[in-house]
Structure formats: structure tokens, C-alpha cells
User: What shape does this take?
Amino acid sequence: MHGSTSSRAVRTSRAGETTKQSPEKGRKGWRMPSINQALGMPNAPKGRFVNPGAAKKWADIVAHMEVSAVLSDLDGTWADEVPGNDMPDVHPDTPTVFGQLSERMLAAAVSGRDDRAIEEVYGIRHTKVHRISEYGCGYSYDGDYTDWVERPGGLDDFNQTLDLILKGIGVYDRVVTQKKPHLSCVHFQGVSDRGVVDILANCINLLAVQHGLTVRKGRGFIEVGPEVDKGNAIWRLFHERDIKPYGVVFLGNSSGDEPARKTLRYLEKWGVVTAFVCVGHDDRALAERSDIHLDRPDETRKLLTWLRDGTGRMMAS
Assistant: This one.
């Protein structure tokens, strides 16, 4: 998804996007130009349209934004991921722009964070922004919070035993645990010994199974809780709001957003125009399956601003 565009390798699709077809490390397929090359806009967000139809889909959604939806992950998407309880460096304009979008279209934050952290850490306070927390365990809108999923019955016992395990293998002071309303998360970036990490992961897996909980693994953390994911959360949001959007944009950065990507692909079978945006370079496979790939989280703010301002609308004509 990176590289310059040579004149002899450029061709134009029927939709009018300039594209480049080139193998990447032996893999055949499309290598798209940067967004500013495709649209001729030097101030474009730094990134690429990943497939030949992506620019057209973006333009179509922008042209129908009043009946479309924008959904976004937060950690790694709005700001670089940080270990444990460290505060991410969120640009203050990002939640402002997202709130402005919520005045014109359905806008939802879909995060593994709990609802309080979505509001306080990421500054999402606009009453018209839907807040889906803990991968779909909780939902907040217009000041009202609802548990979409009951707190797992075995979570308290899991937490108590987890502390004993961490002390027993000697990592209690080197990990950060976050005990959320529906989930427990162990950040182990402070543990350098891979063998110890494997022991920790195995212990958590066994303990989770014992208490009927599901394990979710990420970069430097393990999370335990009910069986939920962002894809099902999107379905529930649209069902409870009784809407079928014209188009859907989802922004994410990691394997935790893969269920959302799959849901977008399924929505396309129903005639919904979708654009999955992968942010950053942490998950190469996800980036290659996306429609738009942004270089880093700071470009998210620029893309959301583009959406708010209707940039790219002319490409739908």
C-alpha cells in the first residue's frame, strides 16, 4: 500500500480513480495511489485507497451522509495505543469534529473502553454521539446508559484468583490490570520474558474457561469477559434504532475491529455502501482487507473533517 506511482504502471478505472497495478513482495493485486494523488488534493489525509472501488464508495457515502453512519474505534484509531492506564494523546479537535458529525449523521464510538473512559479519556461528551462500550456490553446515548449485556457472574471470582496468579508467578508489580464493569484486562508490556508471558496467558485461559468467560488477545494485553464483539454491536445499534443506513464508514486499527469489517461486508449484500478504514500499521492483514488505509491516528481527525465538510462528494457524480 505504499510506494510511488510510475507513469507506465498507471491506469484509470471506469469510476475515474487513478490506480496502480503492481505486485507487492510477490503478491499480485492492486496497489493504489495516495489519497491526494487520487483526488488531486495536496492537503488530503496521508493514506491510500486500498482497492479500485474505494474512492467511489467514499464519495457515494459523503454524498448521502445525512442517511449514513460513521462508526469509530478509539485506541489506536484516534490516538496511538498506550500501555495500561497511561493517557493517550488525543487531539482535542477529534471529539469536536465527531460531535459535529453527529448533528448530520449517525455517529458512534465503538470501543473496548468502558463508558466512563470513552467520555473522560477521549472527550466524547456530545449527547448525539452513540457510545458503545466494552465491545458491545454497554450503550449510552443522550445521557442515558444501558447495559446491553449483564455483568458475567464469574467475573468477580476470576478477578480474585487473577491477583493470586499474578503474585504467584512474580509479575504482579510488572503488569497493569483494568477491572471494568464487564471485562478484566491484563496489560503485560512490562514483562520482557516471553516464557513468563506464555505462562501468564495459559493461566488466564484456564481460569477464564473455568468461570465461563471468553478470552480476547491484543498487542500486549489479554482481556476476559462475556462473548461480545464489535460486529454484533453494530447490528444491535442499527436494529434498536430501527434504521438501514445508506452507507457506513467504520474506522479501526486492529484484530478487535475485524468483526466490524465483516459486518460491513455483510451489509453490502443488503445494498449498503460501506467503507472500512484501517488506521496505522499495527495489523498489516487488516490494512490489506480495508478500503482506505491511513498512515497514523492523526490522519483520522483529517478524514473525519473531510467527511464533515463533504470533501470528495464530487467523485460520486
